[in-house]
Amino acid sequence: MQGLIQDRQLLISSLIEFAALYHGDTEIVTRTVEGPIHRYTYRDLHDRSKQLANALTRLGVKHGDRIGTLAWNTYRHFELYYGVSGMGAVLHTVNPRLFPEQIDYIVNHAEDQYLFFDLTFVPLVEKLAPQLKTVKGFVLMTDAAHMPKDSKIPNLLCYEDLIGKESKEFTWPEFDERTASSLCYTSGTTGNPKGVLYSHRSTVLHSYAVCQRDGLNLGSADTALVIVPLFHANAWGVPYGACMSGAKLVFPGPALDGKSVYELLRDENCNFSLGVPTVWLAFFQYIDQNAASLDLKKDIKLERCVIGGSAAPRAMIERFAKQFDCFVIHAWGMTEMSPLGTTGNLLKKHAGLPLEKRLDVQAKQGRTVYGVEIKITDDEGKELPRDGKAFGNVKVRGPWITSGYFKGEGGKILDDEGWFTTGDVATLDPDGYMQITDRAKDVIKSGGEWISSIDLENAAVGHPAVQEAAVIGVPHAKWQERPLLLVIKKAGQETTKEELLAFLEGKVAKWWLPDDIVFVDELPHTATGKLLKTKLREQYKDYKLPTPGA
Ligand code: AMP
Q1: H/E element holding 538?
Q2: Of 357, 445, 478, 541, which is the active-site residue?
Q3: Does residue 172 carry a catalytic annotation?
């Protein structure tokens, strides 16, 4: 017997309709690429998304066509999230930090019909345009006054001119909720990037997790500075969850330096923010360098901050707590998972824990949000206990997790029971908290035992003189691999190898202690801000460790 409930399709357009109707006056603030601060409301966002949908229709964009973007977090990029997907086309957000050859590959692979881009990327698009065979037109996301006079880009259109002449009347079409809505390529540290194709249904379901109290806990009372890029895994679902919840949004545009982030948090009175650890490193560096002239207590009203994309170091979570009384929600996910998998909220039993004990909980990657099933297995696929000790391969399944990459790249990626292997290695404790031990590729295999590079890095950044740390396995004749710690020192701070080793002692198992420490000026990162360990391993593959038997 079937239930007698209306079969309304879960469509992205329903989110913006809801926001315009019930949060129509709520503001969306942007530091624009052109410079000034721009303000408007959800009602304006809705109107302009509909103008955009009319413009796309006039350009001949059809259901299922891919529309590429190379853009920062701004209100115009946000309009594309709704205008493109809402009219039935597929929004393809491209990460502009990728190498030009990768962007070329991705846009051609996706067969983008139009490419919308920011002023910052005019030189890049000029260079790439001749190779982008499927792109019929390039839309520069600015107004007429800022259009370049003598650009070499063919079929160049101005965004404001394009949508300005269109009507604000547009009826969002109704279609099957399983229709593709957006496309995002994985950053691909090895091999070509692969496309993850989301649907309207998966996106709307995922938005519930963004707004859930035990998810990212985004609500109408929040003012959120969205630092995580709109081009990185749907900005963790915030653009959709924001419309579902009616939160005020603040977009930083291209200015992600510590000073600009500080000023936006202060000027817009933000109580919520989201970003990868690298951004917060720059933010705290700015605070340290300008401590005398800043009134932190008065300026920063952050209550919650989501950190994910890479492990949030315990020292960073502690600093947020002590300096701003701000609770860090440590989140884990992947592009393949829309991206939310786990979020680090507290349980009732944690109430009143002293800070040190609470940080132990928060340093873990959190508990699964409803909608994601998770398990850990050994290399033979046997499920391992949830005892907080056994660590194994993390596998997931659920209605917002990929079932296969775009155009079948990579072949079959699910096992017979529908589980997707994430490539992460973790423990699960009896309360359901997951702790990432490593990427499967980054685990250091020493004498048949595994050493977690992430744990070592987290311990190292707890030292007051350490700005950033990376640990890689270096070949070792006796032990197969041993850890090498690479450290960037904070400006004006000093430490030595001996002092750092003494600092690490007791924080990790003795046999985990790095065999050597090298001080470096910079560390390589991927386009999404993660340490690029493949490059480091290549760089140090012949490194001679000073330990016996190396
Ligand atoms: P991406 O698809 O680019 O977002 O990368 C996903 C990968 O980033 C995951 O598989 C993890 O290896 C890593 N990652 C994401 N969040 C975290 C976290 N909180 N702690 C540790 N690693 C993370």
Answers
A1: helix 533-539
A2: 445
A3: no
List, for residues 300-348, the tens digit of each pLDDT value.
999 999 999 989 999 999 999 999 999 999 999 999 999 999 999 999 9
186 is catalytic: yes
**What span, in angstroms and rounded, lies between the C-alpha atoms of 142 and 119?**
7
Measured by CA distance, the residue closest to atom 7 of ligand 1 is 334
Burial label, 206 (beta-carbon count in 10 A; 0-12, 13-18, 19+): buried
- The closest residue, in CA terms, to atom 8 on ligand 1 is 309
234: left (phi over 0), alpha (psi -120 to 50) or beta: left
Phi, psi of 212 (to 5 degrees): -65, 145
- Set out the domains of the chain in order of their start, with CATH numbers: 12-208 (3.40.50.12780), 442-550 (3.30.300.30)
- In whole numbers, what is the pLDDT of the chain averaged over residues? 95
d(CA 231, CA 80): 12
Q: What percent of the chain clears pLDDT 70, i.e. is strictly above it?
A: 99
Nearest residue (CA) to ligand 1, atom 5: 334
Using CA atoms, how far apart are residues 445 and 449, in angstroms rounded to an integer?
Answer: 6
Q: Which of 186, 342, 368, 402 is catalytic?
A: 186
- Could you list the beta-strand ranges (E) of 252-372: 272-275, 304-307, 327-333, 340-343, 366-368
The H or E element that residue 434 is part of is strand 433-439
Distance CA(342)–CA(323), nearest Å, equals 25
Both tokens assigned to 446: 């020493």
